[in-house]
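Quick one, tokens below:
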């Protein structure tokens, strides 16, 4: 070892620093009696560690010791002051080094702000074939002129435009895709008021419900994609197996191409941006058909999308919005999209699947839901009652994963009902943009009448109406009052059919087993919620036949954007959102390549065409050698392999062979 004075100096520095640095970690004071002599320790380091590494280590430890000594010399106020200064400097550093994100300004037009004063939608009027009426479901006032409905040819043109744009976007870097997501995120943050007001006017939901269902979940998805999206789309290493130990195996995720999406009306902003974010990050184009019951808002949202794309240099045709009816939806499925996500009713989902079968277009179906909300006897009522109210009445009950069946243990049933009624009797219903509104309007024209039919059936079979339960015929818009039903049982339609309205139906149960049995006695299986002590609630939740379960919370699985969203049974199949949903935007490709230089695969001579007489014994020997259950069988396989190689090839004239 060369005689390096700097190394000896480093060891000395380490020795000097140790008494100061180590106490800061509580080591010297705690183990003073058992620690070896520090001189011996650092002498050993001098012998074992390279001089350059020892020198660097000494500088780090000396710096730490000086910092600790400085901190110990300060009084409490000085330490707080230094922390504040450090935090301020760090904030300035992050601000300076933070990536620049474009700002997008998109305003409502004067016509969109004004609507059509004095013009109202007349309930019961059928929608015209070629145009889409746009009106506020809370006031029936027209939001603007009727929108043209796309026909099949127009939809196919939009798909082709998206395909051309996608070929360019597929070559984009993850850095550019992240910048697009950040640009959308900034737009959402800076335009929450307008986004929520537009959604409220088009779908009837109050601003708070729009904040929950439109903005917060969208921002959560942006944040997740920015942080983790690239990680889950990078090639993933897989094991190559025993016989191919010398190979590298991986899975690659390539953009599927043009994704089609047919989305409902209940959350007009998020239902567009949710598939948009995942698909553009995966390198796809998106053609999304919005509902004919919430098309007006897509004008503003569509301009925002175009502006965000332009701000980062993405192709302007990368996202296409389709307006229309069944013809447009059918064209989206059959007109050349590479995959389709459908969110809607089970009946229409079957039609989508049937149409997709002709072209073998893959489909993801997120269909109806009728989620159970189970309250065990040891549940906290102060926690679960507000959750129950939110689960039943948010967005006037128009939620895919809304709580529709409430199973409450008999020991706390009466207290649960009392607390629910105390809040339910105070709920205020009205126009979405009016101050102090808890429940807004029903978006679909005939939905209130449908909900009324389910309530009437339940009452006829013994249910008790605690509040609500009857349409106010004098209401200016499409309203159904927040309703609480007790004494409900499974003979009633309201426990079998999706309500999609503001009804909280309570069933008294005697045991956890009964709650599980009733919860699973349903054609749907989207989400589920269980309240009680954590261990007990998890046990109950594990028995529920559903795609998602939340313990001591409501629908928290949707806020956790790393999780997939979807159900079982008549709630559909496959998943969107989360890791699985993001990878579902891709074609999955398996790749195997040689992993050790100089080693390649060659077909053994006995197995080369024409195969030798020992070919089959050779294969048998390989099986024993590689896959035997113990080392003796592996050794036996090796001997069998040698023996097979020694089998002489008989001189039999094979059919088709020529004589020498």
């Amino acid at each position: 070892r060369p005689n390096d004075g700097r190394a000896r100096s480093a060891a000395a520095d380490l020795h000097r620093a140790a008494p100061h640095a180590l106490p800061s970690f509580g080591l010297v004071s705690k183990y003073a009696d058992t620690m070896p002599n520090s001189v011996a320790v650092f002498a050993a380091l001098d012998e074992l560690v390279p001089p350059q590494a020892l020198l660097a280590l000494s500088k780090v430890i000396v710096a730490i010791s000086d910092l600790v000594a400085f901190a110990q010399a300060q009084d409490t106020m000085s330490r707080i002051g230094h922390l504040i200064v450090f935090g301020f400097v760090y904030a300035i550093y992050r601000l300076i080094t933070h990536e620049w994100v474009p700002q997008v300004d998109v305003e409502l037009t004067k016509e969109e702000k004004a609507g059509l004063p004095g013009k109202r939608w007349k309930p019961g009027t059928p929608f015209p074939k070629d145009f889409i009426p746009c009106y506020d479901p809370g006031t029936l006032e027209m939001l603007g002129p009727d929108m043209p409905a796309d026909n099949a040819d127009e939809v196919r043109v939009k798909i082709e435009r998206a395909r051309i744009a996608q070929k360019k976007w597929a070559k984009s870097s993850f850095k550019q895709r992240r910048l697009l997501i950040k640009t959308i995120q900034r737009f959402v943050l800076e335009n929450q008021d307008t986004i929520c007001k537009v959604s409220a006017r088009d779908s009837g939901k109050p601003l708070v419900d729009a904040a929950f269902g439109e903005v917060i979940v969208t921002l959560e998805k942006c944040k997740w994609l920015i942080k983790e999206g690239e990680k889950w789309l990078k090639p993933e290493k897989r094991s190559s197996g025993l016989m191919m130990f010398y190979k590298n195996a991986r899975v690659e995720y390539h953009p599927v191409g043009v994704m089609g999406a047919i989305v409902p009306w209940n959350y007009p902003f998020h239902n567009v941006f949710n598939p948009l974010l995942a698909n553009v990050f995966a390198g796809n184009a998106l053609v999304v058909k919005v509902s004919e019951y919430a098309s007006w808002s897509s004008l503003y949202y569509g301009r925002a999308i175009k502006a965000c794309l332009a701000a980062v240099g993405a192709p302007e045709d990368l996202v296409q919005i389709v307006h229309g009816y069944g013809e447009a939806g059918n064209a989206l499925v059959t007109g050349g999209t590479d995959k389709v996500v459908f969110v809607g009713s089970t009946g229409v989902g079957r039609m989508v699947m049937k149409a997709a079968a002709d072209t073998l277009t893959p489909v993801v179906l997120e269909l109806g839901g009728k989620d159970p909300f189970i309250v065990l006897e040891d549940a906290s009522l102060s926690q679960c009652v507000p959750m129950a109210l939110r689960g039943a009445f948010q967005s006037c009950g128009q939620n895919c994963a809304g709580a529709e069946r409430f199973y409450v243990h008999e020991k706390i049933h009466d207290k649960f009902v009392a607390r629910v009624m105390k809040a339910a009797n105070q709920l205020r219903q009205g126009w979405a943009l009016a101050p102090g509104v808890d429940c807004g309007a029903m978006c679909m024209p005939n939905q209130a009448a449908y909900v009324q039919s389910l309530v009437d059936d339940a009452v006829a079979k013994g249910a008790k109406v605690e509040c609500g339960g009857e349409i106010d015929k004098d209401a200016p818009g499409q309203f159904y009052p927040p309703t609480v039903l007790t004494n409900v049982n499974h003979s009633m339609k309201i426990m079998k059919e999706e309500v999609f309205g503001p009804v909280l139906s309570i069933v008294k149960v005697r045991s956890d087993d009964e709650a599980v049995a009733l919860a699973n006695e349903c054609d749907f299986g989207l989400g589920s919620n269980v309240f009680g002590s954590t261990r007990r609630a998890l046990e109950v939740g594990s028995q529920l036949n559903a795609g998602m379960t939340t313990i001591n919370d409501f629908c928290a699985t949707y806020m956790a954007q790393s999780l997939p969203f979807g159900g079982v049974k008549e709630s559909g199949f496959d998943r969107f959102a989360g890791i699985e949903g993001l990878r579902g935007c891709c074609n999955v490709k398996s790749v195997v390549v040689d992993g050790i230089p100089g080693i390649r695969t060659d077909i053994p001579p006995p197995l080369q065409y024409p195969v030798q007489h020992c070919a089959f014994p050779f294969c048998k020997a390989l099986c024993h050698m590689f896959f035997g259950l113990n080392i003796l069988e592996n050794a036996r396989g090796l001997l069998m392999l040698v023996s097979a190689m020694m089998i002489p090839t008989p001189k039999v004239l094979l059919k088709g062979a020529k004589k020498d």
